[in-house]
Every structure is written in C-alpha cells, then in structure tokens.
Write a structure and sequence with these properties.
CATH architecture of the largest domain: 3-Layer(aba) Sandwich
Number of domains: 2
CATH class of the largest domain: Alpha Beta
Radius of gyration: 19 Å
Strand content: 15-25%
Structural class: alpha/beta
Shape: globular
Number of strands: 14
CATH superfamily of the largest domain: Rhodanese-like domain
Length: about 270
C-alpha cells in the first residue's frame, strides 16, 4: 500500500479499528449510510483494497464506487460499525467534508459488500463535466419547500429513471422518461427552449445525479439552474413529504421510503 493512503487512514490508528459482533444481534440497529463526493482521487487500487478490507472487518454490506472523479457510498451495518466507517473515511483530508445521510432499518438491506473502481461514480458519458471543479448552485430543502409553499414559478426536473419516478415524485415535476442516467444529456436536448429563462431545480434520490445533470443543462444554455442539496432523502429528512406524492425508490431491499424515511414493508428475515 502506498504511503499516501497509509498516511490518510493509518496515522490516526483508524485502520486498526474493530467492531463488536454484539451490535449485530441488537434488533432495529441497522444504520443505512449514503454519501458521495466529487473529488479528484488517485491510487485507487490501494484505496479499494483498504476500504474492502475494513468494511469486511466491520461486517458492513453495500457498495462503494471509486473513480478518479470521486466516491459514492451506500452501505449498512451496526451503529458502531457505521460510526467507525465514517471516522475512517473522514480521516482522509480529501474526504473530510463528505456528508452521510443516515436512516434506520430493522434488517440488513444489502446482501454483500462490494468495492469497485469505475470510470464514473455515476455514469453520464459526457466528457468535460466535472462537478468537483464546476458545481452548479444548490438550493437547500427548506428553501425549496418555501418556494413551493409560495407558489413560486419553479421547474422541478426529475433526473431519475422512469420506474423511480413512477414510485413517487414532486408535484408537477418534469419527467424525461429515462431508462438510464446516461441518457440524460440527449433527453435534455428535447426540453422546450422556453425553459432556458425559467428557474430549474434538478433533483434525484441523494443528490449525485442532479449534481451532474445541472452542469449539463448550464452547458446547453439554461441560465438559472439549481440542484436540490442532498436530493429527495435530505428533503424528506428536513421537510417530510410536503409537495411530494408517493414514495422514494431506493436501490436496496427497503424498496421505497416514505417521507419519514420508513421502508415500504418490514423485512422478516
């Protein structure tokens, strides 16, 4: 392992942390973590090996995607294990500001632990889009709710896949009927040119897709584009399901979450 990765994670002793198996026997104690950060990363093989080893030692399950553009994390485990994982990640100065969304479940929603290196942490396939260097403005959930409460003329643009939108979305949101996020740039070409003078708020589940979508729109001449900070999940946490119909689809065994971040059904495994 390189000295850079060692220095980032091991100089504080965090690489030697262990977790008690007692936590896994305590019901209702699975913590679900979701977080991402667009940041220039290198030495990905070393980082992958370290994170894979520590996640297995901590008995965590889920997926971590790494690329030269950043990191994307969705995983679950005990309170102690997830806390130690957050501390481990944030010991790296590059990732110190990575924010995690936390929610509870009575069961482990993932079947395995996977750490993978990819070209992009969310696949867009548009060269030159780099949110780490050129990030679109954000709107906080409470601010968006205020805009909607006031009836402000805002275009809400859902950047998720069609089946996710069908599970639930904001009132009167625009839907591009995507089957994959990689279609977004092409689908955006079909938007009405009159929208270029409107206030547009892009949104998705946790923020990662709308953070890439917003710069694409700006590059196409849309002049007043925002992204919903933290996505639907952050909005639910701060504002509940105000102005939202249905439930938010998530890519694990919880299936969908309501405005209180509660799973669709209880898992009895």
């Amino acid at each position: 392992m390189s000295s850079v990765v060692k220095d980032s994670f091991l100089r504080t002793g965090l690489g030697r942390m262990t977790v008690s198996s007692k936590q896994h026997r305590d019901p209702m104690q699975f913590i679900n973590l979701a977080g991402y950060k667009f940041i220039s990363l290198d030495e990905l093989d070393d980082l992958k090996a370290l994170l894979d080893r520590r996640c297995r030692e901590l008995e965590l399950k889920g997926t971590i995607l790494l690329s030269f553009e950043g990191i994307n994390v969705v995983l679950a485990g005990s309170e102690e294990a997830t806390t130690q994982f957050q501390t481990l990640i944030q010991a790296d100065v590059r990732l110190a500001e990575l924010r995690f969304k936390r929610s509870l479940s009575a069961f482990q929603p993932f079947d395995r632990m996977l750490v993978k290196i990819k070209k992009e942490i969310i696949t867009l396939r548009v060269p030159g889009v780099d949110p780490a260097k050129e990030r679109a403005p954000t709107v906080a959930p409470a601010e968006l709710k205020r805009w909607l409460d006031e009836g402000r003329d805002v275009v809400l643009l859902d950047t998720r896949n069609a089946f996710e939108v069908d599970a639930g979305t904001f009132d009167n949101a625009m839907d591009l009927r995507l089957s994959a996020f990689g279609q977004f740039a092409h689908a955006a070409d079909g938007l009405d040119p009159s929208l270029k003078d409107k206030t547009i708020v892009t949104f998705c589940t946790g923020g990662i897709r709308c953070e890439k979508a917003a710069p694409v729109l700006i590059g196409k001449g849309f002049r007043n584009v925002f992204q919903l900070d933290g996505g639907i999940l952050q909005y639910f946490e701060e504002c509940g399901d105000a102005h939202f119909k249905g439930r938010c689809f998530v890519f694990d065994q919880r299936v969908t979450l309501d405005g209180n971040l509660e799973p669709e059904v209880a898992n009895t495994r």
